[in-house]
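Figure 2 data, in text form.
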Amino acid sequence: MKQAIEDFINSKRVAVVGVSRNGKKFGNMIYTELKDRGYQVFPVNPSAQQIDGETCYPDITALKDRIDAVVICVPSTQAEAVMKEAAAVGPRNVWLQQGSETPELVQLGQDLGLNMVSKRCVLMYAPPVRSFHAWHRAFARLFGQL
């Protein structure tokens, strides 16, 4: 998993699936934080044309050849379709955010040949790690989980 995390973090063009018009959702936090950390980030939500004044894309198919990685931050019932789109469109680095993953989805990602990260929060790894994510990272390192 270390290599999958490193490959994802080194990707600089990222689609975040699950960005919402409700700015309090975790997908929005990931979108904003990755942008602040220097990533070129594309919000994906089929029900919105714009989020925070930025063009919002209906799916990752609309971003073909523009992204290197995908963060999936939607319910697991929607994540399967996103993973299949990623496999079809081309970004191999997929971060299945906590709350989106199931063992079946992780297996599906592996079967599709995706470079999968799951059971971890992307904000604990995307540099620079700040705020409470830095604390979580320190504890994970302390207990050998990093």
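Caption note: Residues 76-89 form the longest helix (14 residues).
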